[in-house]
Amino acid sequence: MLEQSAQRDNGSLAPERSDEFRPLQVIGAGPAGIGLVLALCNRVAAAGSSRGAERELLESLVVFEAGDRPGGTMDRYRVNANTSSHDVVQGIADGTPFVAVRDAYLAHPDTQDELIPLPRIGELMVDPLARALADFLGPRLRCGVEVARIEITPHGFTSFDADGDALATSRNLLLCCGARDEPLPALLPYRDRWEGSARFLMRDSLDDLPAGDGPVVIVGASHSAFSCAWRLLYDPLFADFAAGRDILLLQRRARIKLRGTPEFAAAHGIAYDPVDDVCPDSGLVFRNGGLRKDAKQLYLDIRDGRENRVRLEQIGDIADCGETFARAGLILQATNFAPRLPRVERDGVALTLGRPTRDGELHDLEADRIVPGLYGMGLGLNILPGGAPRGEPSFDGGIHGFQSYPLAVAPRIVDRLVATLEGKIGREN
Ligand SMILES: Cc1cc2nc3c(=O)[nH]c(=O)nc-3n(C[C@H](O)[C@H](O)[C@H](O)COP(=O)(O)OP(=O)(O)OC[C@H]3O[C@@H](n4cnc5c(N)ncnc54)[C@H](O)[C@@H]3O)c2cc1C
Question: Distance between CA atoms of 97 and 65, rounded to whole angstroms?
Fold first, then answer.
């Protein structure tokens, strides 16, 4: 009913009066945006009807998604999952509108195999979740609507489409728009042979792939970097391209971290600090910072001489690697995801946003201060989780995916929103 009364003839959800501001609008319905809805549903299901603010948030939020369906990019990566198929759905609690999706996923024979390709997770989990989200939110999920601009007002936030039509106004706004590959400054001179790992890992054809003579140079030793090498070696799509080509992986860190049990680390000679590098919750070594699954196996194969087509080279300053880049036929950059954000402006001036707090609040980077009520999460916005999900104390990155967003990242944002709604935290734009 709320929707119908707020909806105008042009389809806009913008209210007429400032006192009809929604508590929250969410931009982007990939795993991060869906993760926020799951976290709210989990909270409401756990608290029953006793927590009014969570319920108010859940029943009034509006979600804008540029694509024609929710789900984002996860199922476009042509790699196996990082995490066990059971972990992928652990963020869906009993008693929520999404529990049937979780149970159907877990009952599927494919999910008895821990390591399944991300596109398969897409079919078995992301698509059903997207349909359940659409049923649950009804007209409050607006697919095919790209938010082009957001205006910060004294009361909150107004979002606009590319035609300049107002879409919605809210007291708080959460950006979950995903990430884009951005070349490191040292790689700008080599744009003709450069590709970001996200694009490379999503490729289903070789169209426009830079393919000069010379080796493939992969920059970074992250999970994505080893996944790029894995695709080059084992995906039939790249069989001709990679045949006979050297693959060089440039790493800055002195060591490569692998996720595993202490027994696994001992058996494979993986050095670690028993206090700093072990997750106190799970007992796993490098639980969050380590390579997983295919990437981990590939590293061991390279290190132990079973795979000789990839060479690891430790480098100092990337700016000193010019000769290597000049010789390369293809440079794959597997580091430096930048957030893909719409224009956010105050008084007509665009803000540069980033550096989220652990509660997801975004900073105006030039003014070096938090923008009250403006949150962001998802790929490109690394939020170091607190408590058990933080993993090993030495971990200082962000963790991404369905198993982390609803359980580790979104709950902190929900806490903050609830405290604001309950008047425990003031706000001023
Ligand atoms: C190699 C690799 C392996 C991975 N393995 C796993 C795994 O095993 N399990 C797992 O859970 N995760 C995994 N992930 C992580 C997962 O793919 C990402 O965390 C996830 O896709 C990022 O989610 P997101 O919502 O931040 O971004 P996206 O998936 O990019 O979603 C962003 C959404 O926002 C929309 N949008 C953007 N801008 C606007 C706008 N202006 N207006 C309206 N809508 C907008 C987009 O259309 C899109 O739908 C993996 C990632 C990589 C790179």
Answer: 20
